[in-house]
Amino acid sequence: MTEAAAFxxxxxxxxxxxxxxxxxxAPALEGHMSPEHFRKILALLKASNICDVRLTGxxxxxxxxFHQYLAELNAMGIxxxxxxxxxxxxxxxxxxxxxxxxxxxxISVFGxxxxxxxxxxxxxxxxxxxxxxxxxxxxSSKSWIGISAVLTDVNKVALENFIDVAHKHGVRKLRFLFAxxxxxxxxxxxxxxxxxxxxxxxxxxxxxxxxxxxxxxFDYVTLNNPFDLTREKSRFxxxxxxxxxxxxxxxxxxxxxxxxxxxxxxxxxxxSNINDKNAKQILLNLQPGGLxxxxxxxxxxxxxxxxxxxxxxxxPISAIEIKTNEILK
Length: 329
Hints:
Oligomer: single chain
CATH superfamily of the largest domain: Aldolase class I
Number of domains: 2
Strand content: 15-25%
Number of strands: 11
């Protein structure tokens, strides 16, 4: 059994209203994880021997206690990973201290060009070039920081320009995710279905990325693989829901426990609550596909409001490793 991991959804709030957001986070939303819930989660993680923690939201840095929570995790010996849009991180007076407290940080960008990036993220988003420059600058100072790029309007010229600019800025870790030109992870998500045409489209993009990064020195490049969620080497066709080969838990701001990040806030996918006296036993003993773990429906027709059904046994965190020069633990 692969070691377990936990996503902490610290808040519903976000300083953006991205078109592709699967939790529909927005600035007007309220609902932060309370200190009481946070500490109960920490106790549960410790009792369940879960040390692989990823902070997300919404925008996790929108939480008023973000710095305090980060310090408490570090005090427990856990250096979490951060998934952020980078706005508050770039503007922070304590950027270096935050990065030093993390084992990894992905900054999201929402297209390969400034036009697409701003179309999806909105006017409040940081300029694409500024984000790439920030990531490259801190990569050179030995921080584990990478760029997570949504593939919206994809063509080889835009892909090559993006990779070239990222490389020139010093970015050495890239992650690519599929989405529609609108930003919504809809029809393009069908590249992970059993449709051979869709597989061919995704294979072409993967081959283009492979070709482009081979000419440059990157440490880590993946197609739809946040951090090291799977070490599966096959290109396509594998069923890659995290519960297929590991235990992974998501904790909502109000303390509910879900079996997968794409199940978050779906009531019928709740596994337990941190106040449940059986929560520890569930996390320790639940096997993939077990009684409490329903299959992720993150790419179902109903979830995205799509016009056609797609394979719900796969999801956007499927992985195609393009090139890896380092072992991520």
